[in-house]
Amino acid sequence: MRVALAQIPCVLGDKEANLGRMRRTMSRVEADLYVFPELFLTGYMVRDEIYRLAECMDGPSIAAVGAMAAETGAHVLFGMAFRDSMVPGVLRNSAVLISPLG
Prior knowledge:
CATH architecture: 4-Layer Sandwich
Order of helices and strands: EHEHHEE
Radius of gyration: 13 Å
Shape: globular
Strand content: 15-25%
CATH superfamily: Carbon-nitrogen hydrolase
Number of strands: 4
Largest sheet: 4 strands, mixed
Number of helices: 3
CATH topology: Nitrilase/N-carbamoyl-D-aminoacid amidohydrolase
Distance between the termini: 19 Å
Number of domains: 1
């Protein structure tokens, strides 16, 4: 198993830019598992913005990373602010693992 530890900086509060960084990293390095930092999708210190940036499991960023995993045939582990749909108003600092199968 080849593991790519992508200890790269993120753009604070810019999910699209960070998804682009994930995509570029995955296109440059071949691996079976890509590991990105904690809260990589949004970065730290976004304060009240974190509520706007957080997503549920069916959010667009999860879908985008799922497409990257399927395209590369690799697993992807990354951190994000997760909106708990079962408990309104609660956010979780979560590690998300996505397989190439979704």
